[in-house]
Amino acid sequence: MLEGLEQTKRFRHNGWNQGYVSKFEVYKQGGKGAVIMTNSDAGHGLIEELFKAIASEYGWEDFDLNTPAILSKGEASELAGTYSDYWNNKYRIQAGENSLLLFYGDQPPIFLYKRADGGFKNKDFNFVVRFENDFLLMDQEGVKQTYKKVVLNARKKVK
Q1: First to last CA, the chain
Q2: Distance (Å, rounded) from C-alpha 120 to C-alpha 103?
């Protein structure tokens, strides 16, 4: 996945296999980057903390895009709704407290926090959600999916 703004664009990729978790993150310019591997299936949290420490120590600009940005109630309400793809797969977006909640089927909601670059992310999942006009755009490791906002018909009263 390619992340970052302008001069701070960087490539990143997560890996997992039974017994280990890994992540690499390399800046497109400037020779900055790191690869971290853990010998545990539950190493995601440790990896993120290590990357934050490395970024802080070595002055990686614009690294922590996952720091929540302010999400107004008006913006959250405008984005809320149901989004569907060509095959009728549906995601429901609901306004939360300074976040959005993403619902899919019967799964528990995923909290999405607004990032400095305008995208939305959950720290535990490797996808970014963006909204453009009436579309929800999901990018997971370079695989992009588009969902159109569904306009629900209001029920008419029958006399």
Answers
A1: 55
A2: 14
Residue 77 and residue 101: Cα distance in Å, rounded?
Answer: 11
Sheet containing strand 2-3, strands side by side: 2-3, 10-17, 20-27, 33-38
Q: Where are the extended beta strands (E) located within 18-89?
A: 20-27, 33-38, 81-84
Contact 131, 76 (CB under 8 A): no
- CATH 2.40.128.50 given to domain 73-149: yes
**Are the beta carbons of 48 and 38 closer than 8 angstroms?**
no
Domain chopping of the chain, boundaries: 2-58, 73-149
Give the Cα separation of 120 and 8 in Å (integer): 18
**In degrees, to the nearest 5, what angle opens at C-alpha 149 toward C-alphas 152 and 64?**
140
Q: What are the tens digits of pLDDT across the range 50-102?
A: 888 888 788 776 666 555 667 888 899 999 999 999 999 999 999 988 889 99
